[in-house]
């Protein structure tokens, strides 16, 4: 595991892209310091090819590369870790397959889920989405209070998900939230480098 993982706080979650070879370096130069491949549609062989390309880029930048849902794929690729949801394979299984030093993340959407998650061997937890988002169709927003409470009592880093923008970071950071997962603000940006830079600036705007 990356020894400085808890100090990494700008987390890109992206699906497959035709322009990955230029998009990913752009956002990494802009300040993204964790990357996850989350692909729900494309067949496995396409994900493998994309994951290899992304992993090589992330390694050039010294950034953790994480696979969504599949510890088996993470193991086969030698990825840095895996992120799983409440209905996916267990954290214990991820640890069994990937070992004690891998990054293992777990999504939570309620206080009971979060309380249980803190007893597991996860590297980090996510809380949200704090507002409804098309990247999580059918899931209602949890609201800010859940994420604030989770971060206040967790020994692990708590990443906020759902509608993250520089403005939202500026609102939430003074209230105790410091780790953020970003999807659309980066994946839909006309200028990915500028978008990542704006997020990074919001994280350090003192």
Write a concise keyword list for the protein shown above:
206 residues, alpha/beta, TIM Barrel, eight-stranded parallel β-barrel, 9 helices, 8 strands, 17% strand
Give the helices and strands, then pairings:
Blueprint: E1 10-14, H1 20-30, E2 34-37, H2 44-61, E3 65-68, H3 71-77, E4 81-84, H4 91-98, E5 103-108, H5 111-117, E6 124-127, H6 144-153, E7 158-160, H7 166-172, E8 179-182, H8 184-187, H9 192-203
Parallel strand pairs: 1-2, 1-8, 2-3, 3-4, 4-5, 5-6, 6-7, 7-8
Helix pairs in contact: 1-2, 1-9, 3-4, 7-9
What is the chains' assembly state? single chain
Low-confidence parts lasting 5 or more residues at pLDDT below 50?
A: none
Q: What is the overall number of helices?
A: 9
Query: How many individual β-strands?
Result: 8
CATH superfamily: Aldolase class I
Task: Please tell me the overall pLDDT.
Answer: 94
CATH class: Alpha Beta
Describe this structure in words.
The protein is of the alpha/beta class and 206 residues long. The chain has a single domain (5-203), classed as Alpha-Beta Barrel (TIM Barrel). Helix content is 41%, strand content 17%. The chain contains 9 helices and 8 strands. An 8-stranded parallel barrel has the order 1-2-3-4-5-6-7-8, surrounded by 5 helices. α1 packs parallel to α2 (44-61). The relative contact order is 0.16. The mean pLDDT is 94.
In short:
The protein has 206 residues and is of the alpha/beta class.
């Amino acid at each position: 595991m990356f020894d400085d993982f808890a100090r990494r706080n700008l987390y890109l979650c992206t699906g497959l892209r035709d322009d990955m070879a230029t998009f990913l370096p752009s956002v990494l130069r802009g300040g993204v310091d964790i990357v996850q491949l989350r692909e729900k549609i494309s067949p496995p062989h396409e994900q493998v090819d994309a994951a290899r390309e992304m992993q090589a880029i992330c390694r050039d930048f010294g950034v953790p590369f994480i696979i969504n849902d599949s510890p088996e794929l993470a193991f086969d690729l030698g990825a840095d870790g895996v992120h799983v949801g409440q209905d996916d394979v267990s954290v214990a299984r991820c640890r069994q397959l990937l070992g004690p030093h891998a990054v293992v993340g777990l999504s939570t959407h309620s206080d009971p889920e979060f309380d249980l998650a803190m007893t597991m061997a996860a590297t980090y937890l996510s809380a949200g989405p704090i507002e409804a988002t098309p990247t999580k169709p059918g899931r209602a927003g949890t609201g800010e209070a859940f994420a604030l409470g989770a971060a206040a009592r967790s020994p692990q880093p708590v990443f906020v998900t759902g509608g993250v923008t520089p403005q939202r970071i500026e609102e939430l950071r003074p209230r105790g939230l410091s780790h953020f997962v970003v999807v659309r603000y980066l994946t839909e940006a006309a200028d990915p480098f500028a978008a990542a830079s704006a997020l990074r600036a919001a994280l350090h705007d003192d």
